[in-house]
Amino acid sequence: MSWTRAAGVAAIATLGVAARDLTQKKHALLRNYPVLGHGRYLLETIGPELRQYIVTSNDQERPFSRDQRSWIYASAKHENNYIGFGTDDDVENGVGYPIIKHRTFSAAVPAGGVHAGEDEALPSAKVLGAARGRAQAFRPCSVVNVSAMSFGALSGPAIEAINRGVAMAGALHNTGEGGLSSHHRQGGDLILQIGTGYFGCRDEQGRFDLARLKDVVASAPVRAIEIKLSQGAKPGLGGVLPAAKVTPEIAEIRGVPLGQDVISPSRHAEFHDVDSMLDWVELVAAETGLPVGVKSAVGDLLFWERLTEQMARGDRGVDFVTIDGGEGGTGAAPQVFSDAVALPFFVAFTRVYRMFAAAGLTDDVTFVGSGKLGLPKNAITAMALGVDLLHVAREAMLAVGCIQSQKCHTDKCPTGVATQSPWLARGLDPTDKAVRLASYVKTLRRDLLKVSEAVGVLHPGLITPDDIELMEGQRHGRTLREIYDYEPGWGTLGRSLDDEICRIMLDIAPQGGSAPPSGTAEH
């Protein structure tokens, strides 16, 4: 085609667009500025990408800044994730900036190699389910695990990549409430989440079916069961999976009709208060032998008051509590829920932890934190406050290819992570991304271990609320204990748990050292 002809075709097309713009009544901008007005919609469409790479500074963007994403990407690719020329963070003026206080002399000495510690699993300081004598109680091999994201919300290749990756890293993979799919069966150990829709363990009427639950548990390496009460993205609100997204595979996994909207109610049908919930927890635990816990965002504290009161009696209880921050998350939700419903993680967790601590229950419960804790600074702060396990979601998505385009709710994720489009999902190679997920988990654990040893302890669970201060610029700082009103001993492990994890870490953790002493060295 000659240039003259091509120009003519372009001119005719432009005139056609102009004619359409001038006659349509839906968009005033296009009626007033035909053709040119489309530029505004183009810029709006690619606005998140422009802000990511052109407009914002390294530490400004939300929910994850460029620095944070770069650290995750480099860690996932097993590249150098060190930085040079000092921090980008505004330590001179920032309020609430955490400072971890290292020790000059201690028995724990960090290994100096860049990758030292990456091959260590960094186990939990607590045995999940031991306090209540569950038949299949176990010590999680990794303090870093992947949080609840359902097949349906994420693509099959993304779920497969995550499950393969956690198998490589010795971590756990939470199924999310959408049921246990073939994509979850790639070798990784699982936490099976049960939501209000009872997907995968329901009968034809949508009622919970204990026999089906036991069949699902027996069919896969399920290590624990998590009862979802609410999540940070939309606390107190149910959900809808539109009929258009219900593929035959999803319908079979969830046990729902094909061609109909799938409704997740806002409340459970099997219990209506704390007392009946604990009865159901004990039933599920007895029938499966597995540790059973609850996941919830935090708002009104009456539920937690009743739970600690009931558990203090000693006859019933949950094995773990997962606190989800209200900052948002992977679930699509009304903006007001993501922005303003439920407390942010650190406020939420400490309010709940204080209740368990006051009741003397903290050694009997494994505390799981979820809410942007997949970054070393946040993770260390959380563990100093009493978190035992870290469950990461958006960070895991970034590790397997997410670019924070924020199109999760549109089914048009450009990297194939959060979509059911076969065309988009085909771009995600599970084999390659599994290695990246594993590398990210291992690198985060490495950093947690190195920081712990710099503080003078052998495990991040031994860092105390006194070891971290939140700064107000360069004026002064206050310890986590002061800020969150922790009493002496809170945020720490009991003596027996402390001694046990120290014995374990002495056997597996790499140790650093010093140059050979000279003849004048003091011994």
TrEMBL record:
- Identification of the protein by name: FMN-binding glutamate synthase family protein
- Tell me what gene encodes this: gltB2
UniProt organism field: Barrientosiimonas endolithica
Family named by the database record: Belongs to the glutamate synthase family.
The protein's superkingdom reads Bacteria
Pfam families (alphabetical): Glu_synthase
Provide the Glutamate synthase domain boundaries: 143-456
Q: Which InterPro entries match?
A: Aldolase_TIM, GltB, Glu_synthdom
